[in-house]
Design brief:
The structure is a homotetramer. The first copy, chain A, is of the alpha/beta class. Chain A has a single domain, classed as Alpha-Beta Barrel (TIM Barrel). Chain A has an 8-stranded parallel beta barrel with strand order 1-2-3-4-5-6-7-8, surrounded by 5 helices. Chain A starts with a strand and ends with a helix. In chain A, helix 3 runs parallel beside helix 4 and helix 10 runs antiparallel to helix 12. Chain A is built from 12 helices and 8 strands. Chains in contact: A-B, A-D, B-C, C-D. At the A-D interface, helix 3, helix 4 and helix 11 of A face helix 3, helix 4 and helix 11 of D.
């Protein structure tokens, strides 16, 4: 069963838009020394959408071989076609992935009815050598996976959990209520980490944990200790920086913040543009206000 | 400062669509003996939208005179026009209301810019003899009050709190973070009572508390005792019945549930229609499954 | 059968927020001399939402007695409750209204299912002494009346047409295809007058016709003459001023434009605020660019 | 300048999910004999989202070499990354494409601000050896390209037009009003072909023209002859079948309809599933009702 705090790691690019493996190695070493339970490579914040399958697999190989072996590596393998998705699941498993995170196909929104998505996920679950974690990300996909669908899928022995980034705390509660014993419900954003823990989330996959892995893990610890007061204080304090790097300014801000904190964020890949000088200053100010 | 659990009481109607004061009296007596901190009369669940100002004031008078004097009565006074809203605030105060709950004007959605809403609420706050509680209810109004607006309004000494029914737990957290000391942030739906308490909500105004006042209050008690396990268990158990009476089947289901539990729900007012026999059976089954 | 161009007349208010009947009379006289087929009193642009039933009926009486008897007067009577709606329909008919325009109840959005709305409109149609025109206005109500519902309602002999302000031209086409013989489908905004005529709309109710009645009527004339070139040119030219007074700046801008063109717009009623000086200048510039 | 009727051709797949070139050849020959002005390969209806860049280019090569040389071929080349998009534009041009149709990147919706999209399209326009047609498809991308953005882009000599599938006829009118002389505004769906022509659209790219190329072209002819009556009759008649194959049942229904009409639709690619028997019957009935 998956639990604890994971971070969907960013992918540093060079000015020429190729992956900057030197920077990646630097970051992996540092994340490996934090209390993080694991990482997700090729999540949304890893700019998976800008990489071909070939580029993805080369990156996965590198990450698995350069990250702390005691921690887990989950690989984002969701593609629009079922065929490409299952291909990536098999290859990622062969490279040593602990699990795969599968975004639903979403381009043909009108056709992604519950039956179609059910068949897709069941097919992927059958084909994948490692456990499947469902990835609900309506903000980017425009599709929200219904609780009824996830509930049915949770009965499959190879479907291990869900990362829910809907931000709907009632839905997250219903997922906990309606999914199979041992199925892991993860929060998908640090903005509601404490509320998610309060209703029984097993863990969380947080972009914010790229830059604040210790504090994100600290919240789980405080919660488990029953120290609600400090946990709440930390939750409220995190909101502003979290919104900046996962909402308002997105991946380029997350990369800029990494640079400011001794990690190496690198360039985003176009069409994403690096921050302007004014935007960098905003990130700097918010980090300082946060207290780092 | 307002805190604890309130319920927006339903208004029982007769077959002829007039208020059934006998049933109202019966319910008021019973609610008065529960641990509820107070009630809201003429909230959304009170079908305020179907009553004229004259009918509203007669009802307010009756409720205040027939409810436990040790508990608070908040009156819904929001209207489309600023003038009618301030009129109702003054009259409600004269009748003995402890506070007023003010829904924003929303018909001309495109024109309800932050400045317009700010001026409206400031004007109402100046005019109202009793404290104003803001009522954010995007599901019905189609308008979500921005945190920045509420933050500014919270500085007014006569604006005492907000009932936020957006269901966005991050927004609710931001409201707690950004509003003035002593300003009460209330959750607006029982579906996220525990998450709201976990981030510091002062209380909640819950339609579900019409039928389950004891259990809603029990959750606050469990939370304050640090009994997170039982609190979570109760939260998850409440979700289904709560969704049925505040979401899927709405006010007619809430009234039917009241009837089943020894309260007197009465008829809804048209265009709302009473439940069909099949729908009543659904409510019955869910109540039984809940354990009453 | 209703056809041609109507305008939903604005209601001029005084500084004290009472109806300015002097200004209303002035406007009625002038609109009476234009080629308009009729007017709608108490439509959205008439700020119906800010008036009590008593104020509404006094206004209706005044308008009917001060407008060109050769043109039609339609009265907006839609309220949240079925009872108040039927009351206003009867009273408006007694005062001489040619028809009533009925907005759907919409506050309890989740409960406004097709059955509920069907029963509501059928009840109103039975009760109203004059023909009912349905008013679909999703931008303000948050509810879009499905074609299937309108199709069924169109079979009632006292339901005469629909004003569709959804802006969805395919839906408007489907309404024309699926409603009963003799049922009038009206466009609800000048932004798509020509497209609506092209698919067979019987007419239009246009806020823009408050200030440009001649040009709106001219478009119908050009279309009927088969002069598509000039009709298109006029349609494109109208877009900017139309968006300004019905979208971007709304009713206060429409009133300001009336003032600039020799009508008397008067004050809007709070929470609506009069235009700032900068906004007035924008309206002036766009009117000049339009060529008046 | 691009004008007239194009169809975004479907891609027939085998049971094994490889492209069925035999069926493709059959269809190309038949479309080549219709009055269509051209085709779009790798549009949304071509299931572009389910093919790798390698598969795409092989298909483009085949199509260009097997289609009527007197008609135009536009190639869908939009990808999430700017780099892959420009790569496909260059390769498609090298294979003989007349133009490229470029969908905006859209996965990171929150980051696709006007500046980011402007830079992306300008970069693509500079890199592409053949004219760029912008592809606005909010239903699938979740992003609507603002008129102000398209207006600016239309000034670039290598940006030739836009296919607007928003269904917003006012926006389409504004695009015609605000884009450069010679820029082609195309309607993106047959549901509003006549309204689009009425406001001055240069043409249309219609999924429906896969199965009804003659009737779609006939509408343009009727419109140009000023035969509004027959044109409107045809428009209204087309709505039902158009909705079925582009809305309700989507690509699998379009493929089934092709099969029924002597074309060869082939299989859809997973996650899309072929129609059930009941759904096929619906398509059959609607085609018969249409009169084929």
């Amino acid at each position: 069963m998956f639990k604890g705090i994971y971070t969907p790691i960013v992918t540093p690019f060079t000015q020429e838009e190729t992956i900057d493996y030197g920077k990646m190695k630097h970051n992996l070493e540092r994340w490996g020394k934090t209390p993080l339970d694991g990482i997700v490579v090729l999540g949304s914040n890893g700019e998976f959408a800008y990489q071909t399958s070939e580029e993805k697999l080369k990156l996965v190989d590198f990450v698995i071989n350069n990250f702390n072996r005691d921690k887990k590596v989950i690989v984002g393998t969701g593609c629009e076609s079922t065929r490409e998705t299952t291909y990536l699941c098999r290859e990622a498993a062969a490279l040593g992935a602990d699990a795969v995170l599968v975004l639903p196909p979403h381009y043909y929104k009108g056709s992604m009815k519950e039956t179609v998505l059910y068949e897709h996920y069941m097919h992927v679950a059958e084909a994948s050598p490692v456990p499947v974690m469902i990835y609900n990300m309506p903000g980017n996909t425009g599709i929200n996976l219904p609780v009824s669908l996830v509930s049915r899928l949770s009965a499959h022995p190879n479907i291990a959990g869900i990362k829910d980034t809907s931000g709907n705390i009632v839905q997250l509660s219903e997922l906990i209520r309606d999914t199979a014993e041992g199925f892991s419900v993860f929060a998908g954003n640090a903005g509601y980490l404490l509320p998610a823990l309060s209703v029984g989330a097993a863990g969380a996959t947080l972009a914010l944990a790229n830059i604040l892995p210790e504090d994100c893990c600290r919240m789980v610890e405080l919660f488990n200790q029953g120290n609600m007061e400090e946990c709440r204080e930390l939750q409220l304090r995190m909101l502003e920086i979290n919104f900046l790097v996962t909402g308002k300014l997105g991946i380029p801000a997350l990369k800029a913040a990494l640079d400011m904190l001794g990690y190496q964020g690198g360039m985003p890949k176009r069409p994403l543009l690096p921050l302007s000088e004014d935007e960098r200053q905003i990130v700097k100010n918010v980090l300082e206000k946060y207290g780092i």
